[in-house]
Amino acid sequence: MKLTDKVFSIVEPTVAALGYELYEVEYQKEYDNWVLTLYIDHPNGISLDDCEKVSTAVDPVLDEADPIEQAYYLSVSSLGIDRPIKSDKDFSRNIGNVIDIKLYAPLNGKKELRGRLIAFNENEFTVETKAGSITVGRRQAALVRPHIDF
Fold first, then answer.
1. Which of 19, 30, 75, 136 could disulfide-link 37, Cβ–Cβ 3.0 to 4.6 Å?
2. How many Å apart are CA 72 and CA 95, to the nearest integer?
């Protein structure tokens, strides 16, 4: 089992008990230090106080389970409004919304698409663009994000 999956299974019950969704766990070296980042979500959004609350609750849980051998910094964060759309749950939340898609290889001559997400399944998703409906294989997409107008 990958370390991030192990940490996810250890802390997810605590995060859920606080009323938040644990979205993703990252463990990576930043400069000379290891950082364990827990990305959380809530229907009402995430504040700095929410991050502190989760950090305070999961810190002793991680200390007791001790899944990581070396020293690390614990970080709790929101994914932000432009977080990548990866899981079925993400796609479901974004049905009817405009999304931006970056592809590994061109599709119909384009590597970047924008359209309204109208359907998805485990292998592909369909967007309505100005040129019509386009179905994209999930493995064809390097990055899928909600479209943000500034």
1. 75
2. 38
Q: What is the DSSP letter of 87?
A: S
Q: Output the pTM of the full model.
A: 0.72
pLDDT digits (tens, 9 = 90+) for 27-85: 999 999 999 999 999 988 899 999 999 999 999 999 999 999 999 999 999 988 888 89
- CA–CA separation, 99 and 146 (whole Å): 4
- How far apart (Å, rounded) are the C-alpha atoms in residues 76 and 58? 10
Contact 142, 102 (CB under 8 A): yes
Q: Which pair of tokens denotes residue 136?
A: 């994209």
**Pairing, β 110-120 against β 124-129:** antiparallel
What gap in Å lies between CA 144 and CA 85, rounded to an integer?
5
Distance CA 137, CA 150 (A): 28
Taking the CA atoms of residue 18, residue 1, residue 76 and residue 14 in that order, the dihedral angle to the nearest 10 degrees is 10
